[in-house]
Amino acid sequence: MAGQATSIIVDWGTTSLRATLVSQNGKELDHLETAQGISSLSKGEHEAVLMAALASWFSTHGALPVAALGMITSRNGWIEVPYVPCPAGPAELAAGTVRRTLPNGSDLVFLPGLNDPARRPFPDVMRGEETQIVGHGLDRNITVIIPGTHSKWARIKAGKIDSFQTFVTGEIFNLLINHSFIARGSTQPPVDDGDAFLWGLKEAKQSVAMSSLLFSARTGTLAGKLSADQLRSFVRGLVIGQEFQQARDAGWFVEKGEATIVGNDGLNDLYAQAAEIFDLRTSIGTEDDLTKGALAVLHQTLS
After folding, report:
1. Is residue 258 within 8 Å of 224, Cβ to Cβ?
2. What is the pLDDT of residue 3?
3. Bridge-partner residues for 160, per DSSP?
4. pLDDT under 50 in the chain at which residues?
5. Does the global pTM surpass 0.90?
6. 3-138+285-300 maps to which CATH number?
C-alpha cells in the first residue's frame, strides 16, 4: 500500500474533518474522520490539527500532497479562497486554488468554491459541491442535483458547470421540526414513515402556496388525520416536494426529463422518490465522486 498512495483529500467542514488516502487512479486506501470541524477551532489552530490528524499517513507514506476543500476555505475557516465564477471546469478551479507548504514539506492545495454571478438578487455560491460535480463527470449536458442542508441544482454544459441555484430545503426542515409550533408533537426519537413522506410529496406537487401548505402539518394533527409517527416524514415530503416544484418552475427540469443525483448525505433515495413523483428520470452518482473531483483539480494544479 505504501507504494500506491499518492495524495490525501481533506473534506473539512463545519462539524467534522474527513480525510481520504488515495492512489493515483483515485482508489481509496484509507479513511479517517474527526469531530474537529472549523466551528470548534480558533484562528491559528488549523495547521496543528491537520498535521496531527494526518501524522500516521505522513509517517508511512512521506510528504504526500494534500487537497483541502469545503468550509475550511471559507472566511470562517483556515484561509478564505475566492470563489471561481461559472462557467468553470477543472482548469478554472485549479487556477483559483491557493497553495501552501506544510511543516513536513507537503504541498497543501486549498480548492476554491464556485459562484454563479448571474443569479439574482445576489450571486449564488457553493463550496465542495462543485468538486462532487467535477468528479461525477462533465461529459454530458445535464442537470445535477446535490441534496443537503442547502441543496444545489446545477447545469453541466459544454464540459463545465454552467450555472446553479441553491434551495435551503434542509435548513427549513430542521427549523420546522426543531423550533416550530407547526411540527410540535412528532414522535421522539424520530420515526421515518415512507408512506407519509410520499403523501407530503404529492400534496406539495398540487400546491403553490408553501406557507399555507406547511400549516397543514398542524391542522392534520388537530383533525386526527396525521399521527405523531407520520408528522416528521410528512413535513419532509412537503419541503422536498416544494423544492422540486420550485426547481421545475425555475427551469431546472421538465417532466419526462433527466437529471443526476450526486452526493452521499443519506438523502439520495428520498430525492429519487421525489423525482419519480415529479416525472423526472434520475440516475445516482457514486460515493467517490468528491475524491475523483478533488484529484482532477489537484492534478491540474500540480502539473
Report:
1. no
2. 53
3. 157
4. 1-2
5. yes
6. 3.30.420.300
